[in-house]
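Hi R.,

Here's the chain you asked about this morning:
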Amino acid sequence: MDEVQDLPERSREVARALEALGARGRVRALPASTRTAAEAARALGCEVGAIANSLVFVADDKPLLVMTSGRHKVDVTLLAERLGKTRIRRAAPEEVRASTGQAIGGVAPVGHPVPVETVVDPALADYPTLWAAGGTPNTVFPTGHAELLRITGGTEIAVN
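And here is the predicted structure, written out as tokens:
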């Protein structure tokens, strides 16, 4: 548990949430930024598609967290149709922080002040190990597709 104490507070919150959810991975700090999928992939030595990007949108005035493969872009029109939403737009930085308690580039799939509706890209199943943000731009944790669905309570929907 000492390694958790060395993490930033936001990442400690994520670590506690992961532990409470029975997740196997542990949050770790990296020396380099993992703000973008490309940066994270370089720092971790993995394919960009194995990065589970946490993107926050606003869907019909409510936050929506989209966990997508680093190799994908989200088609908001298609996603709105698939979710039965009128409109989906990218959340502004202050909306991201208000809904998740975390800043863009470090949004974890868990550890938010209140649950956020979550969509999980099925393309993430292509990788046995995924890397998700740990609450700050330079913290991450390993997980898997099935575990990501379980810990987020997410719905599996193709995003593009």
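One quick note: Strands lie at 28-29, 51-59, 62-69, 88-90, 117-120, 130-133, 139-143, 155-156.

Cheers,
M.
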